[in-house]
Design goal:
By secondary structure, this protein is mainly α. The chain is built from 7 helices and no strands.
Length: 133
């Protein structure tokens, strides 16, 4: 028994976590804290796709380009924006088509069927204008 007591004496005393420290630690990782963080993130990142469309580094789009009713005008505007942009990272055709596809995909169910048809035709027109048909 004396041997056992010596062994205990040689160990360095462990710091015990106090009850209040445990409560603080558990409060930081609790569900309420997690929900609060999630809510904050949701409010700041809610319309990230809208920000991309409005302030994209890839293209300087004309205002209301995706609301135009004529696919030829949509394609012409996207082509002009893609060719003028100095900030895009890929070829003009790829940037223009990516932005158009991005808009159609992100609008999803909220995009009226008529406008979706216009934008799908604009893709074909964009291919034609870039000689990719």
């Amino acid at each position: 028994m004396a041997k056992h007591a010596k062994t205990k004496a040689k160990r360095s005393p462990k710091r015990r976590e106090t009850r209040s420290a445990r409560k603080t630690r558990s409060a930081k990782t609790s569900h309420a804290s997690s929900a609060r963080r999630h809510t904050r993130k949701a409010s700041t990142g809610r319309r990230w796709s809208q920000r991309v469309t409005e302030r994209s580094d890839a293209l300087d789009l004309d205002r209301g380009v995706f609301k135009l009713k004529d696919p030829k005008r949509v394609a012409a505007s996207l082509k002009r924006s893609a060719e003028r942009s100095k900030r895009r990272k890929s070829a003009p055709y790829r940037s223009a088509m990516s932005m158009l596809t991005f808009y159609v995909n992100r609008a999803g169910k909220t995009l009226p069927a008529g406008q979706k048809k216009v934008l799908q035709r604009a893709k074909d027109e964009l291919r034609h204008r870039f000689g990719r048909d």
